[in-house]
Specification:
72 residues; alpha+beta; Alpha-Beta Plaits; two-stranded antiparallel sheet; 22% strand; binds FE3-S4 cluster
């Protein structure tokens, strides 16, 4: 299983992650992304049916690699 969170320090609000994986990522009032299922705490397992979206978002976050993915 995967766990994910956004590195809010390096996110440049490009918006790819939420477009790619709308069930996983949303944006705060400044457009900075966060993992919405656990408010970016980096604790919650990503459901299996969203894993592909997650990996697409990770790959699509340019140029900062702010979508963090941890395999447990
Ligand atoms: Fe930020 Fe990357 Fe998403 S720059 S808005 S984490 S695609």
């Amino acid at each position: 299983p995967y766990i994910t969170c956004i590195d809010k320090e390096t996110c440049i609000a490009c918006g790819v992650c939420g477009a790619t994986a709308p069930d996983l990522f949303d944006y705060d009032e400044e457009g900075i992304a966060y993992a919405k299922r656990d408010r970016n705490k980096g604790e919650e397992m990503v459901p299996v049916h969203l894993e592909e979206d997650l990996l697409d978002a990770e790959e699509g976050c340019p140029p900062t690699g702010s979508v963090r993915v941890f395999r447990r």
